[in-house]
Amino acid sequence: MARVGLTAERLARAGAELADEVGFEQVTVSALARRFDVKVASLYSHLKNSQDLKTRIALLALEELADRAADALAGRAGKDALTAFANVYRDYAREHPGRYAAAQLRLDPETAAASAGVRHAQMTRAILRGYDLTEPDQTHAVRLLGSVFHGYVSLELGGGFSHSAPDSQESWSRSLDALDALLRNWPAP
């Protein structure tokens, strides 16, 4: 019988905390069982397997990130919106590195379509409306922003910018300025 008080949601939250502590790749049902001091079998009434746990953590992370981004974007447009959106991703990754890694998990199409990932795409496209981009340029710009944000954050988290001046924050600000300038002057095909 499962321990009273354990739910799939509670396990996902505990798994997210564990991911932030030890890394997303290290999260397993066994590790979670040890955290709750229960037998692994008792968690299987709430979780199918470690992949199910990881998917739940990814969905939780996407939801948290979307909520933060929506709050940050309220009432903003143009460069202010772009900067606020980018800073949400960077700040979230710094505060929750395991959850941020979870948010990158490849989800099956049905799960992805029902996830907060859809809200992320909608918010990115809303930001780009301020730059008057049409398709297919808007899709190219969505991919560019995602690549720059994720690439910068990943390199920074890995210590890639800690060995030289100027400070990483200065480079981040300059990168966002460059993105804003590029989006305002998007090249014709």
TrEMBL record:
Q: Which InterPro entries match?
A: Homeodomain-like_sf, HTH_TetR, MT1864/Rv1816-like_C, Tet_transcr_reg_TetR-rel_C_sf
**Coiled-coil regions listed in the entry:** none
What Pfam families does UniProt report for this protein, alphabetically? TetR_C_33 (PF13305), TetR_N (PF00440)
Indicate the residues that the entry says bind DNA: 28-47
Q: Which residues form the HTH tetR-type domain?
A: 5-65
Which PROSITE patterns is this protein grouped with? HTH_TETR_2
Keyword GTP-binding attached: no
Keywords, A to Z, come to: DNA-binding, Transcription, Transcription regulation
Annotated SUPFAM superfamilies: Homeodomain-like, Tetracyclin repressor-like, C-terminal domain
Q: What is this protein called?
A: Transcriptional regulator
